[in-house]
Structure formats: structure tokens, C-alpha cells
Design brief:
about 190 residues; 4 helices
């Protein structure tokens, strides 16, 4: 879902004037991308997982979203067609817009950080599922709370990383503008 001809040297995002005759899989106008995982050998609460990336998959993180929780972090439940500071959609979209200003420079930063985060999510997910299965039959309420806590954590971690990356790119762009407009005596 993240491909954009990057492995064959014709990525439309790697140039100032993209070749718009080639349509990559990952495009900026993407609203969200989903990967579904169904494991019938597990309880449905943890056996059905949606990995959701908000916005352009190339510049987003896939967050595991389970079937079992009763609620989700509020930012993931709200939205507006106008930009805001509260919704997950706009947090991810703002970062992606900033990164597209200089894709060659900023995509590497975003992709490296999100790649690290997805690896962390996978390890945490494996540990949580193992613990969930060990307590599920004897204490379903405790297992459900474990899953809820995990879901809240990964969703919030993704938002925190997105905010951090947005600030990194914004700081770099601010420094660039400041350097570009250095007036003598000012």
C-alpha cells in the first residue's frame, strides 16, 4: 500500500515535477488504508485486527485496531472536513502535507520513525496477546481491560509520534524560511 515506484527509480515524489502519467499505489489523496487480519484460532476480540493508516500510507503508521475494545482514543472518533487540532485524521494529514513539501528530505525522517514504531507495536502486540490468552478464560473482564489499555496506548503513541514529527518538520521549515529571508541589518 506504500509503493510509489521507489524501487525502480521513477517515484513521482522524488522529483520537483512529477510524472503524473504514472499512478503510484500510494497517493496523497488517500484518506486511510486498511490491512485486515483474521485469525480464527483466537478469540474474536484479538483474532480480528485492522491495521489502519490514516492518510497517505507512505507517510503514515499502521496502527493495530482490535475488535474487542469498547472505546477508542477520542481523536480517532471525531472528524471534520475543515482542518482542526483534535482529530487523528487532521494530525496525520498535517504531517503528510508538510512532508510533501520536500518529499526526498522529510519522507525519510517520517518513514524511519514510523517503521520503528510499527516494530514496537508488533512486539507490544505479541506480548499483550500472550497475556490476554493466559487470563481470558479465568478472568474475561481483566483480559478485556488489558486489551482496552493496549488499544488506548498504541493509538495515543501514534498520535504522539505524529505530533513529534510534525514539530520536527515545522522547525526545519521555519529555520529554512529564516535562512532564506536574512535581510542585511535585520
Amino acid at each position: 500500500m506504500r509503493n510509489h515506484y521507489e524501487n525502480v527509480g521513477t517515484s513521482p515524489y522524488a522529483t520537483t515535477y512529477p510524472d503524473t502519467t504514472k499512478r503510484p499505489i500510494s497517493v496523497f489523496r488517500t484518506q486511510h488504508s486498511h490491512i485486515l487480519q483474521v485469525r480464527k484460532d483466537l478469540p474474536k476480540e484479538i483474532g480480528n485486527v485492522r491495521y489502519i493508516a490514516f492518510g497517505m500510507p507512505t507517510l503514515s503508521v499502521y496502527v493495530p485496531v482490535y475488535y474487542g475494545p469498547d472505546s477508542y482514543v477520542e481523536a480517532y472518533t471525531i472528524g471534520s472536513p475543515q482542518a482542526d487540532n483534535a482529530s487523528a485524521h487532521w494530525k496525520f494529514r498535517k504531517l503528510q502535507t508538510l512532508a510533501m513539501i520536500d518529499f526526498n528530505k522529510y519522507s525519510k525522517i517520517v518513514q524511519a520513525e514510523y517503521s520503528k514504531q510499527e516494530a514496537e507495536f508488533a512486539k507490544e502486540q505479541q506480548a499483550m496477546e500472550k497475556e490476554y490468552l493466559s487470563i481470558y478464560k479465568t478472568d474475561p473482564a481483566k483480559a478485556k481491560q488489558l486489551l482496552q489499555d493496549f488499544q488506548n496506548k498504541v493509538m495515543q503513541d501514534a498520535l504522539n509520534t505524529t505530533d513529534k514529527l510534525t514539530n520536527i518538520i515545522m522547525q526545519d521549515l521555519t529555520n529554512s524560511v529564516n535562512e532564506r529571508y536574512r535581510f542585511k541589518g535585520a
